[in-house]
Amino acid sequence: HKPTWAPNLDSGDHVIVLNAGRIAVTAAKCETKSYIRHSGYPQGLKEERLGDLLKRRPEQAVRRAVKGMLPKTRLGAQQLRKLKVYAGAEHPHGAQQPKKLEL
Questions:
Q1: What is the distance between the alpha carbons of residues 94 and 27, in angstroms, rounded to a whole number?
Q2: Terminal CA-to-CA distance of the chain, rounded, Å?
Q3: What is d(CA 25, CA 49) in angstroms, rounded to the nearest whole number?
Q4: Angle CA(42)–CA(40)–CA(58) in degrees, nearest 5?
Q5: Are 54 and 20 in contact (CB under 8 A)?
Q6: Cα(17)–Cα(1) distance, rounded to whole angstroms?
Q7: Whole-prediction pTM value?
Q8: Which of 1, 51, 56, 76 has a CB 3.0–4.6 Å from the CB of 71, allowing a cystine?
Q9: Are the beta carbons of 30 and 49 closer than 8 angstroms?
């Protein structure tokens, strides 16, 4: 929507996601989707299910979903820094006057 948009440049928009703890995910997705990481040490494989992550840190689940959709370059990392995710409705961005989107 900007005349100065280019696919290789960051356009400067910030995104604030509220109520990340209220996302709806099917029960099957909560049990089958898992996030895996490895520490680099022997027996350092860590696995966490989506359902457990939503209970513990729902904002992290949304952040990981968005991160998977962004390009795996410096531009993607720069765009991810402009994403702010909060589990509840409280946020410190009152001056930016976030608007509620009707879906």
A1: 35
A2: 19
A3: 12
A4: 110
A5: no
A6: 20
A7: 0.81
A8: 76
A9: yes
Instruction: Round the average pLDDT of the chain to a whole number and report it.
Output: 91
The model's pLDDT over 40-77, given as tens digits with 9 standing for 90+, comes to 999 999 999 999 999 999 999 999 999 999 999 999 99
Q: Which residue has the tokens 């879906």?
A: 103
Residue 63, C-beta contacts closer than 8 angstroms, at least 6 positions apart = 80, 83, 85
CA gap 7, 28 in Å, rounded:
36
Q: How far is CA 58 from the centre of its chain?
A: 9
Q: Position of tokens 């995710």? A: 85
Length of the chain: 103
Question: Residue for token digits 């009152």?
Answer: 94
With tokens 């929507």, the residue in question is: 1
